[in-house]
Amino acid sequence: MCGIIGYIGNRDAVPLLLKGLKRLEYRGYDSAGIAVLTDGQIHSIKKSGKVSQLEVLVDDTPMQGFIGLAHTRWATHGEPNDINAHPHVDHTGKIALVHNGIIENFGTLKRVLENQGVAFTSDTDSEVLVQLISALYYNGKTITFEEAVRGALQEVVGAYGIVAVCADEPETLIAARLGSPLVLGIGEDEYFLGSDASPIVEYTRNVIYLDDGEMVKLTSGKHVISNIHSKALVTKKLSAIDLSVEEIEKGEFPHYMLKEIH
Fold it and tell me: Nearest-CA neighbor of 37 among 223, 172, 180?
């Protein structure tokens, strides 16, 4: 299973995202990646193999920022390698996206985008989604990033849990789900996103579980949840995570499978 972690707030996102990826290792994966927004630019690093290998690459760079997203991938479309790892960045280099799930009509959408001159760099269905968002955003003239994501999701068939960021709207993080879990963690003037609660519990126990067909727009200190298709605003109740950090870590065991057996 793939894993997602996202952050927007007043801390450096990089160490939070890397720790979140480690918390998601129990799900199994073949590659991992991270992207942060800094000074109006997307900086992304991704690597096949262990999160520890990605961490070495990140440590060798000055990467930092207050908004970012990261992902552990279990290959579906495309072999497990650096290129097919997430996050995927659009052809302009200004939009980054992580995606859990499968886009069933990616072939048709990819052909349409290629006919429009969009060049793809991976073999994944997920890249089609970020390129489609980009096409709507940059060809739509007055369209907002949120509207571009909404419009793209209305075109796809399949399942998704996504988090996306755009360099041209540097104080916004967008997330949405359909058939793939996504949880929003609410802290003090900061937000966390995860495919489950494990990367969030260390920072906040106040969460909102998004339902199918919902998306959330996160800005500094504010979250707005809406229906993807109707645009109607949705009011959600806070839930409390009852897991402890100790419960989700490997502890004395060398790996998660052995802990599960015991």
Answer: 172
Question: Mind giving me the DSSP string for 153-184?
Answer: HTT--B-EEEEEEETTSTT-EEEEEEBS--EE
Give the C-alpha separation, 145 to 162, whole Å: 14
DSSP 8-class letter at 260: H
Q: Is 163 helix (H, G, I), strand (E, B) or coil?
A: strand
Q: What is the DSSP string of 87-115?
A: PEE-TTS-EEEEEES-BTTHHHHHHHHHH
pLDDT above 70 for 79: no
Which element (helix H / strand E) includes 239? strand 239-240
> 52 in helix, strand or coil?
helix
Bridge partners (DSSP) of residue 52 are none
Q: Mind listing the pLDDT tens digit for each residue in 113-169?
A: 999 999 999 999 999 999 999 999 998 766 899 999 999 999 999 999 999 999 999
Question: Of 160, 157, 162, 159, nearest to 146 (Cα)?
Answer: 162
The pTM assigned to this predicted structure is 0.90
Token pair in block for residue 236? 């959600």
Q: Is the dihedral of CA 100, 44, 23, 242 positive or negative?
A: negative
Tell me the per-residue pLDDT of 211-262, one tens digit each, with 9 for 90 and over: 999 999 999 889 999 999 999 999 999 999 876 555 555 545 455 455 455 5
For residues 249 and 231, give the distance between their C-alpha atoms in angstroms, rounded to a whole number: 39
Q: Flag the least confident range among 46-50, 107-111, 234-238.
A: 46-50
Q: Answer whether 217's CB lies under 8 Å from 174's CB.
A: yes
